[in-house]
Amino acid sequence: MRETKKKVLKTNEAAAYLGVSRSSLTNWVRQNLLSGGVTPGGHYRFTVEELEAFAEKRGLETAGGAEASDENVRMLVVDDDEGFRTFVREALDVFGGYELKEALDGMQGAMLAGSWKPDLIILDVRMPNMNGVEFLKLIRQSPDTASAAVIVSSAHLSTEVRKELEELDVDMVLEKPVRLARLAAAIQSLVNLKIL
């Protein structure tokens, strides 16, 4: 019998492993049905052993990350630049199995994130009303949005901003301008989308 390595998975990876959505996984954690570690930034981490034990107890078959959930992945783009929001839609053209909503600034994004609970947020740093760092601080405080995967894509990435983003447990930082294929690959690495 092959020994399983004790690999630690992020929320999106654990959801893909179980073949469920991020929201289903985080709901199980909140209901104390599944336990996982929590990072200082409030993100859940799971071992393969924990997931296997949970799946066996619940009679679930693990997808092992190979299959997507039947539920659509929820993605939120928060950027005041219409051109970049269009660019994100173009990057997603090769995928199916997702829903996309857009916000023009951090304030609108925070309201949408709180009510819609996205699995992935693609975010700019410089925006009117509420900037990206303020937005992240706000959503990381709420149990409903704290575990969302986050890609920050910005042309304004000073050393200080990068440090703040790291402290807020951002999954990926992409400097603008970013290539279409790079953005699509970044999205696919964080959420389990179906390629059309």
Layout of secondary structure:
Elements: E1 8-10, H1 11-18, H2 22-30, E2 37-38, E3 44-47, H3 48-58, E4 73-78, H4 82-91, E5 95-96, E6 98-103, H5 106-116, E7 120-123, H6 132-141, E8 149-154, H7 159-167, E9 172-175, H8 180-190, E10 194-195
Helix pairs in contact: 1-2, 4-8, 5-6
Question: Which characteristics define this entry?
Answer:
single chain, alpha/beta, Multidrug-efflux Transporter Regulator, Chain: A, Domain 2, 2 domains, 40% helix, disordered N terminus
Tell me the number of strands: 10
Order of helices and strands: EHHEEHEHEEHEHEHEHE
Poorly predicted residue ranges:
1-6, 65-69
Shape: globular
Percent strand:
15-25%
Average pLDDT reading? 85
Q: What is the CATH-assigned architecture of the largest domain?
A: 3-Layer(aba) Sandwich
Note the gap between the termini: 37 Å
